[in-house]
Amino acid sequence: MNVQGFLYMLHILFIVIGYSCITEVLSADGDVSKMMCEKYSEAVIQEEDSPVLTPGAGKNKVSTCGIVEVPLVVGGVKAGPREFPHMAIIGYGALETDISWMCGGTLVSDEWVLTAAHCGKSREKGPAKWVRLGELNLEDSDDDAQPQDFTISEMILHPDYKLPARYHDIALFKLSTKVVFSGYIRPACLQAEEHFKDTTGIAIGYGRMDYANDAQSKHLLKVTLNFVTNTDCVKYYKNDIGGRQIPEGIRDEQLCSGVLEGGKDTCQGDSGGPLQVVLEEPYCMYSVVGVTSFGKFCGFKNSPAIYTRVSSYIQWIESIVWK
């Protein structure tokens, strides 16, 4: 490791240690998340050696932001390099040579990934074991990406998650080693307030590209979806209320999103991934408002998907991630 890399790691270490020490004095739900959001945004700007071949020329500060100004999954388009540096992929299988990437997640600190509780294990391959960060295309080693694989050392599913119902479908996976942030890997922010002004969000994932096709995308896809109020969403799930997944209907801890005309949606394989909005401040950061949970028919008309509402679980998340 060069001197620049060592100093950067030291900088991040001071951030995490210093700010973990003052979390005890922050009492309101979301205070810690907001503070860490500000600190993680500092990783967007990195120092590089000056191209001027003059002794003592110093270093330049360079933005690694990859967010596309107009963000364009079923009906999705390919994400760009460094556009979603918080995206995590959850893998299953005992051997590193035989990993099945079947769920998504969000890096929320230097050692925790937020995902769906139902991603805790696969029916075919058992418990989740792997997390990959910094990826763009699962099969292309020449893409502009810097993937890193981690093993999962601990899984914490929300204590109220009880199958077959899909309520409280949220979990935190701890990585075996801490992450060094870069332009390709850094956490997202968490939506602490229930209400927000955005009318659309961005879903991302490596899931199936249409309902009839079992093949999952090898490239990270993104899609813009409309937020649907729970009152309206109930209309599209009226035949499902009282059933196994939503016996009590759509609850406040859930939110709906989709394109009611059809053609755009999340699908199998996108579970656990983030539904997010772009923040005005801090610079180049997303706020995760939902965790992909389940839906009806991917991309069909009048079939919005249901997500776990992150703001309803801020206190639970903070008590684990920044305890």
UniProtKB/TrEMBL annotation:
Where would I find the Peptidase S1 domain in this sequence? 73-322
Q: Where are the membrane-spanning stretches?
A: 6-26
Check the record and name the SUPFAM superfamilies matching this protein. Trypsin-like serine proteases
GO molecular function annotations of the record: serine-type endopeptidase activity
* UniProt key word Disulfide bond: yes
One BP term from GO: proteolysis
- Localization (cell): Secreted
Q: Which PANTHER family match?
A: GH06673P-RELATED, SERINE PROTEASE-RELATED
Q: What is this protein called?
A: Putative serine protease 46B
Origin species, per record, is Reticulitermes speratus
